[in-house]
């Protein structure tokens, strides 16, 4: 359809009731959101497998496997997945996290059938080609290297996670260790596909200029015949409680001023404290009126100070990253960051400050809902992390329920020294005194 | 997203990073494929918008998009790094707009905007300065008030300015920690030499240190005038109501002096020999490199055709460059190419990266793959695929209020109109194989290629010397190769 020229647009913000979902007999859940704002559609397939499902020796295999899903299946041999999709006007990508692997297809709406055909074939009949495995090792080693070359975050986070987690598989980076990337076998990969790439371990989200009836028909034709498998084994390891501060230092000669990363253990996303912690993160770092900006950047101690709390199936980390201004020592920056965090625990926050970050969250929510891709990705993410996509539409209200006392309580509970790992990235390490 | 690794990343090696910003991110010889049931591509047209002239003659564009209750207001000023007298002037002026305005202190403005979840972001590039406000529809009055003050009456507070300069200088050192963030600036300097298109938008540590408030005021007075800018509003609002508000905010604003613009069509470089700029980063664990030369202007009638041809060479996953360097050889995570058009010239670049030990292998393979354009050319199946691809991927580029406002801003700055969107599909459809041969001959630089390599110079100096006359600079040296 043509947009804009035929009629004046009407308010069409997506509501929970606009989402249709159905589950095939093989356990594959499919969610559909009809949205004709542009003549395009997408398909997001979420697989419940990420680096948390790995063990030493095959670290990074979830991500490597993501690459292999593009490298040949029964009907579409090596390179044909991409060539077929692009010839139909489609593009794709994929991403891997600690918890899941997500495949993203973006295409003109009339390419829907082609996309189903392509996806069904690689789910049901992946054919892992040994030659492709070897060239892909080089690709992923390059991906790993370019991340370390260009990102201080990557460099320090990899080291910090290995210290913050003593037992849980969140201990290693999603991309894995160099030696593991070089070493896994064809059998490892085949086993991985068999274990995790079963329809009952997937969630499919389709949004865009499509009709529910058409999606249902194609899902029944292409996805329904793929047999279910026994569910994968649960990740059993529970990270033991941390009982004292841990530290890690990483030297990188080209780092011009020290970078400090702090990480505190926090509960899984499904825990009731998620919203308060998320708002607390925003108070610390979002916007120039944030506490970090006012106390660190504006005072010329730091040139940047940020927070990050990933959505997560298992208890994970609340990250803080600061980059020192010139002439500011790692120690000074570390203390300044900690001081701001501790201030919330000791003195609490104001109602006005809380209102501010709630408004920022509402704005973020609307921005997410502005594109068909934002909708698909967020719907799937909420369905998996919160167990229910309708929580996405309740999110503004859930944030609204949080009180200043909640913020202070979560700061006092989680953001404490004994629960903290400190990472320092700098050009030179202080010598022994 | 930080803990996420993507199968492929969208990187722009020419992107000008916001100084001091900290990114926590972590993202063919085709046989004919049979795709059944493909009908004609659905048409995609420019969404309707109103052009309104305010009381002072300022033309604004208003485009209603009601999907979410948000509004984007963009002001674009025809002044960028090409107008710099002191390097970094346009960019630092844009940053300084937010240091307080109409007597309201920087911190007060930030608090007021953050409290309603709104934002005003400012930046500049080679040919434009941009002020963008994002807000909920209900907050237009509050934000527009601040927006007009920031644009018209910045205070340029000297204390805040000194602090900003210091942070920007440190930010430049940090950007040089990431070859990907800065390599485009070295490339433009190498290609354009003394021409204004060589000016790094960010400036350098010496020039930023020298900038004064008086210079800021002069730059602002000279260029930030209603006769030298436009405003675009996209989102959920009422046109009549917004027109009244804009008139209130800007209707009494009069131009005070004649704007003087450089003639950028003059003194463009002629590249007479292959050259290599070797940027030494001693602790580099990979080599990041660009290969290319001069490109095309924004108003080039062959822009769309070149988009299709470049899609085949280096603009998509199955492109020749990515297929050879990544998929077949495993040398890199990604290889791409592209034209960056400016008003009066442009650049063409091939970009990739590889581990130190395969630097030569990757450069040679990139050059060999590039040469296929002339040696073999394009076949019909590949052309058909690329056409379908660029048409299919076009609409999502213009989906959000921000994207549409950016499009309207570019229309002002580079002088194109709705046909850019409305004729896109027809132009793609009309591209023939014979035309692709003409485009390759006419536009893709074949001789006297320019190279920038960032890596461990001790290890790759001999490799660098094989491709042209080498100039070596240290990455920590001031500037970008001057």
Summarize the structure.
The complex is a heterodimer of chains A (433) and B (482). With 433 residues, chain A is of the alpha+beta class.
Regions of chain B with pLDDT < 50 over 5+ consecutive residues? 9-40
User: What share of the residues of chain B does DSSP label as strand, in percent?
Assistant: 15-25%
Question: Largest sheet of chain B, order of strands side by side?
Answer: 2-3-9-4-8-7
Oligomer: heterodimer
CATH topology-level fold name of the largest domain in chain B: Cytochrome Bc1 Complex, Chain A, domain 1
Description:
- The complex is a heterodimer of chains A (433) and B (482).
- Chain A has 433 residues and is of the alpha+beta class.
- Chain A has helices at residues 61-68, 80-87, 112-124, 130-150, 152-164, 178-183, 186-196, 212-222, 274-285, 291-297, 330-347, 351-368, 372-385, 390-400, 404-414; strands at 19-23, 29-34, 40-47, 91-96, 101-108, 202-208, 246-251, 259-266, 302-308, 316-324, 420-426.
- Chain A has a 6-stranded mixed beta sheet with strand order 1-2-6-3-5-4, sandwiched between helices.
- In chain A, β9 and β10 (316-324) form a beta hairpin.
- Chain B is an alpha+beta fold and 482 residues long.
- Chain B folds into 2 domains: 49-251, Metalloenzyme, LuxS/M16 peptidase-like (Cytochrome Bc1 Complex, Chain A, domain 1, 2-Layer Sandwich); 275-474, Cytochrome Bc1 Complex, Chain A, domain 1 (2-Layer Sandwich).
- Chain B has helices at residues 89-96, 106-115, 140-152, 158-175, 179-192, 205-210, 213-223, 239-250, 303-314, 320-328, 359-375, 380-392, 401-414, 419-422, 424-429, 433-443, 457-464, and strands at 5-6, 50-53, 59-64, 70-77, 100-101, 104-105, 119-124, 129-136, 229-235, 275-280, 286-294, 336-341, 346-355, 450-455, 469-474.
- A 6-stranded mixed beta sheet of chain B has the order 2-3-9-4-8-7, sandwiched between helices. Chain B has a 6-stranded mixed beta sheet with strand order 12-13-11-14-10-15, sandwiched between helices. Chain B has a two-stranded antiparallel sheet with strand order 5-6.
- In chain B, α1 (89-96) packs across α7 and α3 packs parallel to α8 (239-250).
- In chain B, 55% of the residues are buried.
- The chains are: A alpha+beta (433), B alpha+beta (482).
- Chains A and B meet through α1, α2, β4, β5 and α4 of A and β1, α2, α4, α5 and α10 of B.
- β4 of chain A pairs antiparallel with β1 (5-6) of chain B, so a sheet runs across the interface.
